[in-house]
Amino acid sequence: KSLVDRAGPRTGSVSAYCSLVLVLVQVLVLVHPAAGYSLDQEHSLEFSGPPSSMFGYSVLLHRHGAHSWLVVGAPVANSSSSPSVRSPGAIYRCSITAESRHYVLNCGKTCDAESDHQWLGVSLSRQPGDNGGHILACAHRWKNVYYSKKEGQNHKLPNGVCYRYANDLRHPQPIIPCYRDHQRKFGEDYGSCQAGISNFLTEDLIIMGAPGTSYWTGSVLVFNTSSGGMSVYLDDDAGAVSFGSYLGYAVGAGHFLSPGTVEVLGGAPQYNQKGKVRPTFVAICLSLGSYFGSSVCAVDLNADGLSDLLVGAPMATGITREEGRVHVYINQGQAKLLEAGFQLIGSDAYAARFGETIANLGDLDDDGYPDVAVGAPQEDDLKGAVYIYNGRKEGISPTPSQRITGSTLGRDLRMFGQSLSSGIDIDDNGYQDVAVGAFLSDSAVVLRTRPVIQVKASVALPEQIDQRVALCREHKTPTVCLNVTVCFSVRSRQFRGAIDLQYNLTSDLLHKPSFPHRFYFHGNGVTHSHVRDIFTPVKFEVSYNHRETNTHKASSKTFPPLKPILQQSAGHQNTITNQTWFARSCSLVNCSTNMQLSAQLVLPDQQQYFALGSGQTIMLKTSLLNSGDDAFLPRLTLRFPNNIHYIKVLQSCLTDGEVILISVAIYAFTASAIFCQLSSCFRKQRLYCVLPAKPCLCSSYLCRIIVCASYVKYVSLVDVCDWSCCANTASFM
């Protein structure tokens, strides 16, 4: 004859400048990565119980008046008041102060029934309420003993017992929901129902799991404290009932049909060896042996007034073994739960049993959506870990915002994450705190929640960048520039004090690798020319964080103040972007140009031909007219005989009325051609590109000299060259 057992390893302003052709990005501030998120790991509180008592198997934060308590279950602890009882278990009330004290809660006369190994403290729950409601503590292996005269022997029926404590943690009232005077047979009906292996309290309901009902088919027992009536929920799907399903292994309640109704949850992790959850709908896991339904949590993830559902499958196996999963179901209304397209997996670590426990933490990060904690108590060779997930408008983030282990707390803990509790603000800073049990090290830890700072940032840019308008001067040169204004607004629900923000502004994020950056920050002392890429938008990015802020006012007389954290918005990590465009004066979306090119050869003495040896220089005057929309990135290609070599652009031809030379840059050349980049934007105007070419005969070879505007570059010297013939040319360069 077996019993169900839960034990064991199972604001600022910045100016950026655009020179008519320049680019450089400068990082302003080094941003440090954010530390641990909502839960503070530096000032954790640890509580220890008797050795080998499994102290921490269940935990519960509780508050009554001005007093905050950590209630801890130690299901195999010995009783100091009844030394003859073997390992009955105990409930400890720990005062959360600088000097913690433990008190053992008395369970009353009912303990006089056989309480050996009853596992008092296997489950704990609290009635909701700001000032703390009743507490329920259960011992699912408590046995009802009766003597059969007919058989001449005692019979022990593991009915299970729960104790309901007042909010001052006194005057326990026993509840034995499975006791029946006529019950005599172990396993049959409620003879071994093991009530209380799990429990959950609402304002009016006491919900207890009884997985041993009817040969471990299981049931969920609901006691209405207002009417005094008891209801029993079995699996009413007659075709699906199977012995050993363990319905009631986990229980809960939520608002699934409507915000004004309460529906009860019951998990059956052994249903067909796959697992099942049954509120007003049925969820069945297809993974064999996953223990789907061994933990359940009803929580309104998307803040729509209806409860969504998280179901743990801690023995689900992925690549290795028993990594564990949590299934997510989003309420579509009227208890129509749609499973999300992903599962929560933690670190997907070997034998972690992620999903063993799930707890609703309330809104830790002030974004309006509840957050949850998931325990993986066997991760890292039974050391354990706890993962924090944040609720979102669409449901829940699939990635945890925080991972907490015993080592990150500086403590040697084992089975950390076996139990979780929240719902109470122990330090009066306006945020609910979290308790975590680690029963293999007989410990429990309380983690306080850090206050949240909400920062809204914006980047203001001009709508367009007009290259014709030079609003700034750089090195006494008119320069095209734009102002980038970064603004921050800061708000906190609880924190009061100065906030030290640091931010990093990056420009031109979308620049193409084949082009240089187009912008630089004022004062760099670096300039370029020829901005060629004017089609790609100019994108700016601001990432920000806060320096560690010293808090001067404690949140209570007992606890040191906690440093605030920045709220992490969904979709990005404190990063915003904005972009602007280069202005294009086009009548249509796609510019329609009308480029007309003419060229005239200017020979010495106005001759019609040029005889080799009759002179050293000839000129080619090119005229380019655009009578349509603005042309962007125009290029001019000139080809000439091999014995003529390009020298430079003459500046004397640039004052001919309205004729304007925007800029000329050689970006490629061959022995018989040059390729000029005229300008990034060629508007409705003429361009004269005058190119003198001087044949310089040097022992039948040529001196090759390439000149573009005022930039001179000696490209190559063919064989041996007589430089005397090039002296005049070199002098005027």
TrEMBL record:
GO terms for molecular function: integrin binding. Residues 1-36 form the signal peptide. Residues 591-650 form the Integrin alpha second immunoglobulin-like domain. It is a single-pass type I membrane protein. Residues 449-524 form the Integrin alpha first immunoglubulin-like domain. It comes from the Eukaryota. Its main location: membrane. Keywords: Cell adhesion, Glycoprotein, Integrin, Membrane, Receptor, Repeat, Signal, Transmembrane, Transmembrane helix. The keyword Magnesium does not apply. GO terms for biological process: cell adhesion mediated by integrin; cell-cell adhesion; cell-matrix adhesion; integrin-mediated signaling pathway. It holds the Pfam family FG-GAP. It is found in: Membrane. FG-GAP repeats lie at residues 41-103, 278-338, 340-398, 402-464. InterPro entries: FG-GAP, Int_alpha_beta-p, Integrin_alpha, Integrin_alpha_Ig-like_1, Integrin_alpha_Ig-like_2, Integrin_alpha_N, Integrin_dom_sf. The keyword Kinase does not apply. GO terms for cellular component: external side of plasma membrane; integrin complex. Belongs to the integrin alpha chain family. This is Integrin subunit alpha 4. It comes from Sander lucioperca (Pike-perch). The lineage of its organism: Eukaryota, Metazoa, Chordata, Craniata, Vertebrata. The gene is itga4.
